[in-house]
Design a protein that fits this description.
single chain, about 650 residues
Length: about 650
């Protein structure tokens, strides 16, 4: 029976394609955006058609269609001959990817595409029999990278096709070196057996590179199956135009209305049943789309197989500023938080509408070993635009975990004795180095290893300590360096508008992670960014005075009699709330006399008639609180107070 997940996904994909193909201009614009890797246009068009929730399925359909069109353009219609063994394809891939010039020509001629350059390369390699296999392999790898780039959640953002093909060739080379494992993997691919394939690759220590191995076998299996299933519907002339792509989109959409036929098609492809497949294709009058239809079904089946085979490998990623996720908790248009969160220290939830201040703890994930080849990893942060590395004075100290170190033993009295133990040592990242503790000598009072300080190098790179395995707190960014602040110095007295209103700055933060062995000039293996974070390190303007005390100053000790005039100025770009109040043990005190919750606050004078107030001491106070957070701790605001007294009134 056909896989239910394949049928379900293809049905959802066909529904999405139906919505996208109601307008040929929109369909062409989508295909153009896909080929140009224009994520903004691509996602906008999906959103307009209300199918953005099926972006992955749409990209899978477009990938399959694009690969069929490209390879027909480069290789012509498939020949009526037996498809070569997968080992021949693997040998050819290893040969090409070990030669820098050849792999660049291979990638370029498919990417463009350039039929003349491609045919010249194939002839040079004497690989005419493998033309479709090699083309579809390159296109499969390229399409995965393209869908990653079109997906805004992607972590592999700028990895070059040449680099990816070279890395894939290395994994295939290592599998070829293990003849038994290669034979078992071939058997598993033909059977579509996830557990068998996973076991083979794990035993061959290729489980962290299984995506590349799986793509090899999937390419070979789909071309092998689809040439066999469509042999009785030969293509005389290959139409590679967008009109043909649009016609196929409408044909695929029709399958939604016949779920039994779609289920039967999937079953025929999975079983490689040529007679059954031909019967269904003929019944649906889809003979001209035979290769395209078969490849779409087979390629999606293979994608799900590879997803099953390949255990998820968590890639390095910048995810949070403090507790705030850079994608879901910070508004991209303003750089402010878009919600409140319930964490200790976020006294006001840190949002919505809060800017960031002070030391920002940048969190995420970076393992000590590369998901690509297991070698050492390093990472860094840059300021977007200027590409200034976060290093030296821009780095604030943060705890990043611990590592195990070998250290002298101690006895019960705290004296160092012979021998060593493995004990944890705390790790911090800071802008300046600190000398590690010296192990105590035998007989000396025992002291622990203390803290090991890691400092980014001049380019901002931090090598993940292998003893820690992984860092999840990645860096402390001292935001005051690039968004200075401090006391606001309003330039005016209480009761007047601020002459120098202060505002924060927008920053962008770029994360890069790569293998230590990669040359400095190479694109990083992984990168993502927070495009906008609004930082404001200015304090609130909180100015308060009593007019009756202004002249002379000695009147500060003179009781208020009949009138009280309080001048105040409360100002901040992101004023969350402010309050002016008069309190006392006396019930005469009015309490809050002015308040507000709008940005930039307010200024003015509050006048009170005090002839009816009871003689007592009073306190006029103003509290101001700006909507600011470090991501871990919210700003709690400032306050100012002036005491005064109301004396016995004249005639009282």
């Amino acid at each position: 029976m056909a896989s239910e997940s394949v049928v379900s996904d293809l049905t959802a994909a066909a529904n999405a394609i139906e919505a996208l193909s109601t307008d040929e201009d929109r369909f062409r614009a989508l295909f153009d955006a896909f080929r140009a890797t224009d994520a903004d246009s691509y996602l906008r068009l999906l959103d307009e058609a209300k199918v953005s929730d099926r972006a992955e399925l749409v990209c899978g359909w477009l990938c399959s269609k694009d690969c069929v069109l490209r390879c027909l353009e480069l290789c012509g219609p498939p020949r009526d001959e037996v498809v070569p063994d997968v080992r021949e394809l693997a040998d050819l891939i290893v040969k090409v990817t070990q030669d820098e010039e050849l792999v660049e020509r291979l990638a370029g001629s498919v990417f463009e595409p350039d039929a003349e350059a491609w045919q010249a390369l194939v002839a040079e390699l004497q690989a005419e029999r493998l033309c479709h296999l090699l083309c579809h392999w390159v296109c499969t790898v390229h399409c995965r990278l393209r869908c990653d780039r079109l997906d805004t959640r992607a972590t592999l953002s700028v990895r070059h096709l040449v680099d990816e093909l070279t890395a894939a060739g290395g994994a295939i080379r290592d599998l070829l070196a293990n003849e038994g494992a290669f034979a078992e993997a071939t058997k598993a691919a033909l059977a579509g057996d996830c557990e068998l394939m996973r076991g083979v690759l794990t035993r061959a220590k290729l489980d962290t590179r299984c995506q590349w191995v799986c793509e090899l076998f999937c390419t070979w299996r789909c071309i092998r199956v689809c040439i066999e299933l469509c042999r009785q519907f030969p293509l005389e002339n290959a139409d590679t135009s967008l009109s043909e792509a649009y016609a196929f989109s409408q044909a695929a959409a029709r399958l939604v209305k016949d779920p039994e036929a779609l289920t039967a098609l999937v079953d025929a492809v999975e079983q490689a049943d040529a007679a059954k497949f031909a019967e269904i294709v003929t019944k649906l009058e889809l003979q001209r789309f035979c290769i395209q239809l078969c490849h779409w079904v087979c390629s999606w089946h293979c994608r799900l197989l590879c997803r099953c085979v390949c255990h998820p490998v968590r890639a390095p990623f910048f995810t949070q500023v403090g507790h705030f996720n850079i994608t879901s908790d910070i508004r991209s248009s303003t750089g402010l938080t878009n919600k409140g969160l319930a964490f200790a220290g976020l006294y006001y939830g840190g949002g919505p509408g809060f800017a960031f201040q002070g030391l920002l703890e940048l969190r995420g994930y970076c393992p000590a070993d590369s998901p690509i080849d297991g070698t050492a990893m390093k990472y860094r942060f840059l300021l977007a635009g200027s590409n200034t590395p976060v290093t030296a004075g821009r780095v604030g100290q943060v705890d990043v975990g611990s590592r195990m170190v070998t250290w002298p033993k101690q006895d019960g009295s705290g004296t160092t004795i012979a021998g060593t133990d493995s004990i944890p040592q705390s790790l911090v990242i800071a802008g300046a180095p600190q000398v590690d503790a010296t192990p105590p000598n035998v007989g000396d009072p025992w002291t622990g290893p203390g803290i090991h300080t890691i400092t980014p190098d001049g380019d901002g790179w931090v090598v993940v300590d292998p003893g820690a395995s992984v860092f999840t707190t990645l860096m402390g960014l001292e935001s005051t360096v690039d968004a200075p602040g401090g006391a606001p110095l309003p330039g005016s007295d209480a009761g007047h508008a601020v002459l120098n209103p202060r505002s924060g700055q927008d920053l962008g933060i770029v994360f890069e992670a790569t293998r230590v062995s990669n040359p400095t000039a190479s694109p990083p293996d992984y990168t993502n960014s927070l495009t906008k974070i609004h930082v404001n390190n200015w304090g609130e303007v909180n100015e308060l005075s009593i007019q009756q005390f202004a002249n002379p100053v000695t009147l500060g000790c003179t009781p208020i009699d009949s009138a009280l005039d309080v001048d105040y100025t409360a100002d901040h770009e992101l004023m969350a709330d402010w309050d002016l109040s008069i309190t006392s043990f006396s019930p005469s005190a009015p309490g809050s006399v002015a308040s507000g919750t709008v940005a930039r606050g307010q200024f003015g004078t509050v006048s009170e008639v005090t002839t009816g107030w009871k003689p007592c001491s009073y306190l006029v106070s103003m509290s101001t609180r700006a909507a600011l957070t470090t991501g871990l701790i919210d700003n709690q605001g400032t306050s100012s107070q002036i005491t005064f007294c109301v004396g016995v009134h004249a005639g009282g």
